[in-house]
Amino acid sequence: MSIAAENMHTGTPLLELSQVTKRFGGLTAVKDVSFNIWPKEIISVIGPNGAGKTTVFNLITGIYVPTSGDILLQGKSLLGLKPNEVVVRGITRTFQNIRLFNNMTVLENVLVGEHTQLKASVLGSLFHTPRVVREESEARRRALELLSFFGNVLVERQDEYVINLSYADRRRVEIARALAANPKLLLLDEPTAGMNEAETLDAVKYIRRLRDELGLTILLIEHKLAVTMGMSDRIAVLDYGQKIAEGLPEEVRRDERVITAYLGKSKTGDEHVTEL
Ligand SMILES: Nc1ncnc2c1ncn2[C@@H]1O[C@H](COP(=O)(O)OP(=O)(O)OP(=O)(O)O)[C@@H](O)[C@H]1O
Ligand SMILES: [Mg+2]
Q: Which of 64, 77, 137, 158 has its CA 20 to 30 A from that of 25?
C-alpha cells in the first residue's frame, strides 16, 4: 500500500488477506496476495480477464478454501467456515452473472437473503406460531425498506417475477438481497456489467450511498476503469493471480506495471488503455 493510504488507517482492518494462494491443479489462480480492507472503504480489485479477481471473492466467501494463506475478518480467521457461516459473520456478495431466483418475485428474492437472520424454528414454521407470523411480517417490512433504498420502482414492482425486470433493476434486487443478511462487508462482482452509461452513473451513486448512508464497507471488481477510478478510495491490481500494485486511484493510474499489464492484453487491452 502507498504510504499516503497506509497512514490514513489505524487499528484492526475489517478484512485482511494474508499471503493467500489458490491453485487449481497446475494453475495458480491467486498467488501470495495480501491486502487490507479498512472500515467504510470502497476498494476495487481490477485486472485483466482471468487475473484471479472472482477467485479472490470465492476465497473470501468460503466457496473455495485457500491452498495457503489466511483471511481474517476483524482479526478472526474465516478459514474452515462454510459459505453460509461467512454470511452470518457479516460478508455478503453479488455475482458477476446475476444469480436471482427467476421463478420468484422481487420481494421473495430479498426475503431469501433474510433467512439467515430469522430465529423461528422449523417446527414453529410448520405450525405457524405467533412468533413465526411476527417474524414474517417484520421480514417483509424490512425487505421493502431495503428495496426502497433504490427508490420507488422496486417497491412498486415487489410482486413481479424478477425475470420481467430490466438488467439494471435485477442488479439492484441482487444488492437488496445481499443487504438483507445485514453485512458489514459487501462484495460486488462487476456491479455495472451490462449497463449503459446512465445506468452505470446511477449504480455509482447508489454504491457510494451504501457506504455513506448504510455505513458499509465495499470491495468491488469493476472492468470500467473510469468508473473504478472515480469511485474507489483505493485500488488493488491483479495480473496472473499476483497483486502488482495497490494504492490511491491516481497512483495506480500512473503505475508502470499496471500500464504494461493492460497494454500486454491483446483482446481487451485497447479498451482498458483508453479508459486508463
Ligand atoms: N473452479 C476452477 N477450476 C479451475 N480453474 C479455475 C476455477 N476458477 C477459476 N479458475 C481459473 O482461475 C483463473 C482466474 O479466474 P477468475 O475467474 O478469478 O478471473 P477474473 O479475474 O475474475 O476474470 P474475469 O475478468 O474474466 O471475470 C482463470 O484462469 C480461471 O480459468
Ligand atoms: Mg471474474
A: 77
Average pLDDT (63-75) is 98
pLDDT of residue 115: 76
- The pLDDT tens digits for 82-130 are 999 999 999 999 999 889 999 999 999 999 888 766 555 555 566 667 7
CB 65 near ligand 1, within 6 Å: no
Q: For helices 167-179 and 130-148, what crossing angle results, to 10°?
A: 130
Structure confidence at residue 4 (pLDDT): 54
Nearest Cα residue to atom 5 of ligand 1: 24
168 CA from centroid of ligand 2 (Å): 18
Q: Which three cell numbers stand for residue 31?
A: 498467488
Name the fold adopted by 95-180. Rossmann fold (3.40.50)
Q: Does domain 1-90+183-276 have CATH number 3.40.50.20?
A: no
Closest residue (by CA) to atom 31 of ligand 1? 50
The region that residue 75 occupies, defined by phi over 0 for left and psi between -120 and 50 for alpha, beta otherwise, is left
Pocket test for ligand 1, best of 33, 54, 192 (most atoms within 8 A of CB): 54
What is the tens place of the pLDDT at every residue in 130-188? 777 777 788 899 999 999 999 999 999 999 999 999 999 999 999 999 999 999 999 99
Euclidean distance between CA atoms 127 and 111, whole angstroms: 20
Q: Where are the chain's structural domains?
A: 1-90+183-276, 95-180
Please tell me if the domain spanning 1-90+183-276 has the same topology as the one spanning 95-180.
Answer: yes
Atom number of ligand 1 nearest to Cα 64: 1
Name the residue at shortest CA distance from atom 6 of ligand 1. 24
